[in-house]
Amino acid sequence: MFSDDAREWTLHVNAAVDGGVICTVKALPSDTVISVRQKVVAKLGYVSRFRLLAGCCILTGGTTLEAAGLCDNCSLQLIWLPSDVLATASTDTTAAFWSMESGENMQLFQGHDDQVMWLCFSTDGQLLATASTDRTARIWCADSGECLATLLGHKGPVFSVAFSPDCRSVATCSHDKQIRIWTVPTGHCIDTLVGHSKQVFSVSWSRDGRTLASAADDATIRLWDHTTRSCSKVICGHTSAVYSTSISNDSRRLVSASEVKLSRQP
What we know:
Layout: E1 9-15, E2 21-27, H1 33-44, E3 50-54, E4 57-58, E5 75-80, E6 85-89, E7 95-99, E8 105-109, E9 116-121, E10 127-132, E11 137-141, E12 147-151, E13 158-163, E14 169-174, E15 178-183, E16 189-194, E17 200-205, E18 211-216, E19 221-225, E20 230-235, E21 242-247, E22 254-258
Parallel strand pairs: 1-5
Antiparallel strand pairs: 1-2, 3-4, 3-5, 6-7, 7-8, 9-10, 10-11, 11-12, 13-14, 14-15, 15-16, 17-18, 18-19, 19-20, 21-22
WD repeats: 109-150, 151-192, 193-234
Organism: Symbiodinium microadriaticum
Pfam families: WD40
């Protein structure tokens, strides 16, 4: 027997416009709204922007279902949002969503104290992560712009951030030569990967989530085993800083981009 606190609730998700049934999901009272959003996406089978409401109240990502005043067998309303958006990171300390049709600013993400160097979406489209020279990364609810977690621990500017394919982890890399792995969406640091001898510019995951690739100023690329959190391979060949790297969808190839130093002509 489960206690009342451990018993799953059934939540009915209906279209706000006509009341049509979209799906039902199971969740614990202690689950957050963002986890419910992720379950809705999994049920739908595709990624699309939407907003969840309970009555007239918008449900924000970090709130638990119990704190939001929900109950077992309650009904939620779903409003579809425009999906043709462009996300940008800026030296003005913000990230933003823009309408690709009108160019209008649709959402502003404010909170960093210095320029935003990188941003990325989670694979389910519900979260946005940003990396900043203020030595932090942040995880945001992509719908409301609410900051769910500030990732503190790096001792230098954070250059890149990447969600794991299962959306449970996020990796960051920094001027401090470290790569850190954090839980999503709580933002707890669960590991620090050390091996590069200079600042690390880029991190990217394999599609199966088993491998993390990092590119650094030491002219190398490192492959890290996500299970053991150890370096499985060091790739050498570049003669200068490697700024970016990406693993192919079949996890069999890797592409990298490096600085090229041209020799001076006599």
